């Protein structure tokens, strides 16, 4: 059994290391700042209460992403969603303008597409890693990436065509 100080230090390390990444993922899925904060907090509470052991830092990160995305799905399923964030306010949460544009377009996609696109292009996960995290097949991940790219391309063309 670990000591209390060790648990507090470990929880703080987890929040410092993964907090912003998890918040970005949850914000893209939920399109609501407060709900994203709640989902991240619930994710870390699950970590503290379950005290899982991990093989390495990648396993740790994948576990947290899985818990966070599942929590977001549950929140969407049970309609706990509050007022959606204004897309223009999204730049407050992105580190650079390039990410802002990508996150802006991602937030407008269906959840199943935006999650795989976010994990692949923003977080840098490979297809097989995303499949393990989301517990779907690699072919499903590839198809969602393909369809998500098509949706992004179509929306981008429409915006540029009409001058938005």
Walk me through the structure:
- The model is unreliable at 1-6 (pLDDT under 50).
- This protein is an all-alpha fold.
- It contains 7 helices and no strands.
- Helix 2 (33-50) packs across helix 3 and helix 5 (111-122) crosses helix 7.
- The protein starts with a helix and ends with a helix.
Strand content: under 5%
Number of helices: 7
Question: pLDDT under 50 segments (min length 5)?
Answer: 1-6
Assign the structural class, choosing from mainly alpha, mainly beta, alpha/beta, alpha+beta, or little secondary structure: mainly alpha
Mean pLDDT: 79
**How would you spell out the order of helices and strands?**
HHHHHHH
The share of residues in helices is over 70%
Main sheet overview: none
Radius of gyration computed on alpha carbons: 17 Å
The number of strands is 0
Multimeric status of the protein: single chain
Choose one word for the global shape: globular
Q: How many angstroms does the end-to-end distance come to? A: 57 Å
Topology (elements, then pairings):
Layout: H1 4-30, H2 33-50, H3 57-77, H4 97-107, H5 111-122, H6 127-134, H7 138-162
Helix pairs in contact: 1-2, 1-3, 1-4, 2-3, 3-6, 4-5, 5-7, 6-7
Please give a quick description of this structure.
The protein has 164 residues and is mainly alpha-helical.
Labels describing this entry:
164 residues; mainly alpha; 7 helices
């Amino acid at each position: 059994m670990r000591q209390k100080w060790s648990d507090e230090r470990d929880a703080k390390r987890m929040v410092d290391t993964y907090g912003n990444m998890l918040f970005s993922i949850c914000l893209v899925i939920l399109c609501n700042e407060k709900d994203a904060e709640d989902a991240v907090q619930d994710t870390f509470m699950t970590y503290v209460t379950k005290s899982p052991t991990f093989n390495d830092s990648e396993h740790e990160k994948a576990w947290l992403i899985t818990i966070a995305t599942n929590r977001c799905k549950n929140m969407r399923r049970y309609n706990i969603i509050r007022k959606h964030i204004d897309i223009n306010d999204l730049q407050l949460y992105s580190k650079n303008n390039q990410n802002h544009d990508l996150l802006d377009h991602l937030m407008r996609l269906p959840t199943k597409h935006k999650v795989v696109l976010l994990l692949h292009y923003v977080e840098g996960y490979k297809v097989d890693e995303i499949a393990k995290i989301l517990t779907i097949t690699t072919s499903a991940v590839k198809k969602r990436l393909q369809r998500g790219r098509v949706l992004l391309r179509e929306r981008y063309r429409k915006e540029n065509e009409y001058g938005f």
